[in-house]
Structures are given as C-alpha cells and as structure tokens.
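Appendix C reproduces, verbatim, an entry submitted by the partner laboratory led by Prof. M.T., so that reviewers can inspect both the input and the predicted structure.
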Amino acid sequence: MYGKVCGKIIRRKNKTGNSYNFLIVKNRRNPMNGKAEYQVVWNFGTIRSEQLSDNQTQLEFWKEVALVLTNLIKEGKIYQNCGSEIKTKFEKYVKLPVVKNVAPIAIAKQVTNPSIEERLRERFKGLL
C-alpha cells in the first residue's frame, strides 16, 4: 500500500522549448537526516511542449493515465481521492482531448405509472 501519493511534473528546458516528465510519487521523510524524498510509483514518460497540443498525444496519454490509476486504485495501492488529485494536476499541462465525431444519443421518453400519478393527484388535490 503506497497510501497518500501525488502527481509530480518535472519541467526541463531543451533546444526547442520545454519537456515535461509526468510521475506518480509517494513523498516521505528520510529517517536519517529528515530531508524530503520521493519514491516513484509510476513514470508516464516525457512529453515535449510541441506535443502538448497534439490531439493523438493527448488521447494516448490520458488512456495510459486512466488505465494506471484504475489498476492502482483497484489493487488498493492508492486512494480514490489521490487519483482525482493526480488527474487535476496533470490537466494543467495536458488538456483532455476533444472527442469530435460523437453520434447523437436518442433520449428515451420517461415512462410514468399512470395509476401512481392519479393516486397522487387525488390525495393532494389542494397542493397540485
């Protein structure tokens, strides 16, 4: 059980801009010297700043994030709220992809039981 974990984004300068490395880490204190350390739970890899706006890159990144977080939560290694915090932190850099070709969804007509409706009208005549 990793317990409380968080997302970590490491930004590095390169020739064409920046590179961002996305990690899930567990923070802890070193018992010998008291300094903060982190243990890497999962490394999602590096994305260049030019690729952040690419829809295909976004889609692949978020598929991997969803799969990893689902597995870690299902196995009980991280908490559900940690998963939503990690997603929120990563969304600041990699936007959720926009799904374009969405088929229209037919809205079903709500089915009501007429006998219940009639009974309610009779019982609450003055209120309805």
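The mean pLDDT is 84. Additional entries are available on request from the coordinating office.
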